[in-house]
Design brief:
Blueprint: H1 4-19, H2 28-31, E1 44-46, E2 67-70, H3 74-86, E3 95-98, E4 114-117, E5 128-130, E6 139-143, H4 148-156, E7 160-162, H5 173-177, H6 186-189, E8 196-203, E9 208-211, H7 217-223, E10 231-242, E11 246-254, H8 257-269, E12 276-283, H9 288-292, E13 297-298, H10 301-305, E14 313-323, H11 328-340, E15 350-355, H12 356-360, H13 362-372, E16 383-388, H14 392-399, E17 412-418, E18 435-441, H15 454-470, E19 476-477, H16 485-492, H17 496-506
Parallel strand pairs: 2-4, 3-4
Antiparallel strand pairs: 1-2, 5-6, 6-10, 7-10, 8-9, 8-10, 11-14, 11-15, 12-14, 13-15, 16-18, 16-19, 17-18
């Protein structure tokens, strides 16, 4: 016999399916038999805005939820998850936490379920900065739905800032911590998940749990990089350090990949080095240095004006050195010493001085320009790989200039990090070697066909992945777009057993984060 809750749910799905684009919007009466309409909330459940949360930054996948929860408190999230849990494993309802919607393939969506709009989190959820007393390290308590840019603004009021960042700050705290959070500071401080002291989490049972390395440590490490599988991060305690006022921002070009990578590796291994180190690959781009002139000053304007980039594969090394106003002379000397050890093309040295805030929020400036041109809300078929140091040259020789004939679809990131700065107790999967490279193909697809289409970008991505697999490159995908459990098992390898055990313990009905496509609901064994 089919349960009434399932019949009601299927009716709801039918209403959504028949509505099309101008769909009938269900009201609370539809969810009443499921017990959701009767929840006492500080916030609210809404039904008119389901289409708005059925898309993401990737713009390649769209599924409609039944409702959107705008939580007024952590208790709202716990109550909703607990109610879905109480419906039992036969109920098809699932719950997806949505931050700023920057997922790439529907990871923050749920078909016919409940999307929790984390940016709505209210009540006592506010940013609290603790300066630290004596030997205590300063930290900030931030809601899981807070944007990193807002965390930065608040901590800067105290002369402090988090140590590790992502390149784009208009993402939520809980969103990046559920993946890793990587940028050019990771070689020194590790990813963002290596800089967390404590978490508050709503598990798949609806329990609100405080966890840290000392308390409920299994859940703490599981949730960091855990892809939302074990709980919804509602608060994070993040380590802080003194924030500099200014940044010397430097770019140089290389034509030789070996020199480029050797210099990068030397920089991330040195005790005295830059504060941020990233790299980019450009293939057959015209006028690279002319483009830089809008934001950077050439060290030698005459030589820079004669440089030609057409038809070449070039490698950009991007670095920063933090300083305060009274340290400018010392900074100049330190930068000069560091640059003297590098083998870049001398005519391509560009630099500028900006505030710390301006540098960290640099991608947002590009976002505003792209939005003005209608090029932001387009499909983004990104591919992010982690490549071991031992195979990065094999990878580069096949991909840059062979598989990829140009880099016109978007930026290509390539820079090394130190494995020792990543905590191996977290859920994130990385290569085994001490130095590995993050390689990001950040494509945009504004066209329906041809070179700028999703089909073209995905075809190139598939060729790159196929090469990695056939050549035994040993890569791991970051922000992986896998769609089957078999693929995820291969991804986790020997760590799959731990990942599955944690899922059974903290979300036994597979209610949470269904968009990751790891555990279909009711697929978990009753015991492990």
């Amino acid at each position: 016999m089919v349960k009434p809750s399932v019949v009601c749910y299927l009716k709801l799905l039918l209403l959504l399916a028949l509505g099309g684009v101008t769909m009938h919007v269900p009201d609370a009466d539809v969810l009443a038999p499921l017990g959701l309409g009767a929840l006492r909330l500080d916030g609210r459940l809404s039904f008119h805005d389901v289409a708005a949360v059925a898309r993401d930054f990737g713009n390649r996948c769209s599924v409609l939820p039944a409702a959107v929860l705008h939580p007024g408190s952590v208790s709202d999230i716990a109550a909703a998850v607990q109610r879905v849990f109480q419906l039992g494993e036969r109920s098809p309802l699932t719950v997806a936490a949505r931050g700023h919607g920057h997922s790439l393939l529907g990871q923050s969506q749920t078909a016919g379920g409940i999307v929790v709009k984390m940016e709505s989190l209210g009540g006592d959820a506010r940013i609290q900065v603790h300066n630290g007393d004596g030997a205590a390290t300063p930290y900030v308590d931030a809601p899981g739905g807070e944007l990193w840019i807002n965390v930065l603004h608040e901590t800067l009021k105290h002369g402090l800032a988090p140590r590790s960042w992502t390149d784009y700050l208009h993402l939520t705290v809980g969103g990046t911590l559920s993946n890793a959070g990587v940028s050019g500071q990771a070689f020194r401080h590790g990813p963002q998940i290596s800089n967390v002291n404590q978490l508050e989490i709503v598990t798949g049972r609806g329990d609100v749990v405080t966890c840290s390395p000392e308390e409920n440590s299994d859940l703490f490490y599981g949730a960091l990089g855990g892809l939302g599988q074990f709980g919804i991060i509602t608060r994070a305690r993040i380590a802080l350090e003194p924030a500099p006022k200014m940044v010397r921002w430097i770019r140089v070009l290389y034509s030789d990949f070996a020199s480029f990578t050797e210099d990068q590796e030397a920089l991330i291994s040195a005790e005295k080095t830059f504060d941020y180190i990233e790299g980019f690959v450009t293939i057959n781009r015209t006028g690279i240095l002319n483009n830089w002139r809008t934001s950077f000053k050439p060290q030698d304007p005459v030589q820079a004006s004669h440089f030609q980039s057409d038809g070449r594969v070039l490698y950009c090394l991007e670095m920063t050195k933090n300083f305060n106003d009274d340290e400018a002379d010392i900074m100049e000397q330190e930068v000069g010493v560091l640059l003297s050890r590098l083998r870049y093309i001398q005519s391509t040295l560009f630099h500028t001085d900006v505030t710390y805030l301006e540098f960290l929020d640099r991608v947002h400036s590009s976002e505003l320009k792209l939005r003005a041109q209608g090029l932001w809300e387009v499909p983004h078929p990104w591919l992010n790989l982690l490549i071991p140091r031992s195979t990065i040259h094999k990878f580069a020789s096949e991909v840059f200039g062979k598989i990829l004939k140009d880099s016109n679809n978007g930026p290509i990131l390539l820079y090394p990090v130190n494995r020792s700065k990543w905590d191996n107790r977290t859920s994130v999967v990385i290569p085994d070697e001490e130095i590995f490279y993050l390689v990001g193909f950040l494509s945009s697809a504004p066209s329906l066909s041809g070179h700028g289409s999703v089909e073209h970008a995905v075809n190139l991505n598939n060729k790159i992945v196929d090469f990695c697999e056939k050549a035994n490159v040993g890569m791991k995908q970051y922000l992986a777009p896998y769609t089957t459990q078999q693929q995820w098992k291969a991804h986790f390898g020997a760590r799959w057993e731990t990942f599955e055990r944690r899922k059974h313990m903290y979300d036994p009905q597979a209610i949470l984060a269904p968009g990751q496509r790891i555990f279909p609901k009711a697929s978990l064994p009753m015991s492990l």
